[in-house]
Amino acid sequence: MNIHVERLPDCQATMRVEIPAEVVQKERKGIVAMFASQAKIPGFRPGKVPPNVVEKRFAKQITEQLQSKLVEEGYREGIKKEELEVLGVNVEDPEFHLDDTFSFVAQIQTAPEFNLPEYKGIPVEVPRIEVTEHDVDHEMEHMQSRMAQYEDIDGRPIEMDDFVVIDYGGVMDGVPLDENETGQLAKGEDSWLRMGEDTFLPGFCEQLVGLNVGESKDFDITLDDEFPAENMRGKVVNYHAEIKSLKKQVIPDWDDEMASKIEEGLTVEALRTRTKEQIEGYKKMQRNEEMTTQILEYLDKELEFELPQQVVFGETQRQVNEIAQNISQRGATEDDLEEKKDEIISYASQQAEANVKTSFILEQIAKKEEIQAEENEIVGYCSQLAAQSNVSLNNYIKQVQKSNGFGQIANRIVTSKTLEFLRDNASVTETEPPEHDCDHDHGHEGHDHDHDHSHDEESASEEKAE
Fold it and tell me: What is this structure's pTM?
């Protein structure tokens, strides 16, 4: 078998294969014999049909099967001979020649070739994990505010820091805002609003100060130059607002009775202990994310290699779709997307190349370290996703089977385990934690504290593995 492989840029290769006549004849004879043993032709007993009759009756099927087998065998031998890692193949020009030889050309997309740098002991610098009483107090205050009661205020007008319940509607250029395009900007009924400078639109709450329950007001709000939807920047929205009720927030003091509302039998002391553990878990997750970022940046700088452009193109398309969807959800129109098209494509292309490069590096490390996804890990992962989707595990597994999604899940698990391996083997330098670095909302809310973050760190760097 004569095989010639020409390596091309961008992880492409052209394989030219010529199979000698004796191999073609042998394979043809075997296929004809197989057809003869199974053929049912009037006038002949099963298995006794002469080869020439079989070849004439099933000429098209025999030729198709012969071509398929010769292509597969030649292609596989070429891959083995050249030690190619193939991502995709397109067969061209298959041809049987007069001298009984057979040839074809295969255009091949290959995985990139590169030598891994030393990936154990990658230097990273992260803050020491420290949970202070201030951190716990801050989180406990968040829980207090979420358990607050609201009492009606009578006998005075609206002031800043109050809570109001209002009906409102917006008009721009004489046309009511479209709720489908602008969401809560368009209108609201019985909407709760905390009176604050950073609430809703800048200047909106200030317009309500001094109004009493039952009163209404018409006023204008000018959207600033940073407004997400470009076609609305600098526009004036005319609002009509009616005050339905005025309330104050009453925050209860912590005691065991209040703690037990979060979980039966829970005491304040136990809640503080649990809260401290959860903050520590959150900080560990943040630390892991920072370590992952530094590790991937290190590997990216250490390695330069060509990328398969078909894979990059596919990831670019996925990135473009995701960005466009996110922008649309923030109120952008099709015209806005068209204006941003070049910017979106440029950013998506850069992100796609980074994602694809990272995933190939992690894939090579996983192979070298023999990191695999075990069956129990795949089932556990499916169990988590099934719970999040509020479906039974059996039904979720059926959905995954139907969509051939187990490979994607296995790749996600391998990627996650590879990143964990790199973090465990990194050379870590600890710095002092920033003062009061917990002064923001973690998303830990009461019962939500028990949220499982085991797969939360799967970032864009892992997505090619899907």
Answer: 0.69
CB 90 within 8 A of CB 106: yes
* Chain segment 322-346, per-residue pLDDT in tens: 998 888 887 777 888 888 889 999 9
Amino acid type, 91: V
Which secondary structure element, helix H or strand E, spans residue 245, and what is its range? strand 236-250
Q: What are phi and psi of 429, to 5 degrees?
A: -110, 125
Per the CB < 8 A criterion, the answer to whether 363 and 465 are in contact is yes
What 8-state DSSP symbol labels residue 205? Answer: G
Hey, what are 172's tokens?
């721009």
Distance CA(326)–CA(347), nearest Å, equals 14
pLDDT per residue as tens digits for the range 66-86: 999 999 999 899 999 888 889
CA distance 52 to 191: 85
CA distance 428 to 127: 10
- Rounded Cα distance between 341 and 329, Å, is 16
Encoded amino acid at 159, one letter: E
* CA dist list (Å): 27 to 53, 72, 98, 452: 18, 12, 17, 57
Beta strands in 9-141 (DSSP E): 12-19, 86-96, 102-110, 123-127
The amino acid at residue 185 is L
Cα separation, 54 vs 32, whole angstroms = 7
> For the chain, how big is the Rg over CA atoms in Å?
33
